[in-house]
Sequence to fold (147 residues):
Amino acid sequence: MPKVFKGRVVVPGTASAEALVSHGGLNTLASFQKALMFGDGKATCSDQNNPDLYGRAMAGKALCLPMTIGSTTGGMVLFCAAKMGRQPACLLFSKPIDSLAAAGAILTGVWAEAAMPTVDCLGDEFLEAVRTGDAVRVEADGTVTVG
Fold:
């Protein structure tokens, strides 16, 4: 039975993708380092401190997470990944998005002309319900369907 969640739209758009779930914060610089510096087109997560994501391809996935953490370069990392075609299909946050990740997601749509719908405030229940590999659908109004 599909589960439906409603969040706040940060970057509008629609997406359908396979979920990739992190229960810890996403360190964007550490996670996308291989994609940006060494030409990894799958954007394989290189953050050894994130056991949920480490070694998994992030490009084209519905990246489900509580928040981003780490460097102040976070927004620029997301933008650069998108400019290189290595961005997630969408970003889905259980908590409110931080200003750096929001800037990166917004700039991705404006300057990189890459779709990366972003929804936050989906709640802790969202991260409890979604599993890596689940089908996820994002609607323009912030509705997220899992399953």
Summary: The chain is about 25% helix and 25% strand.
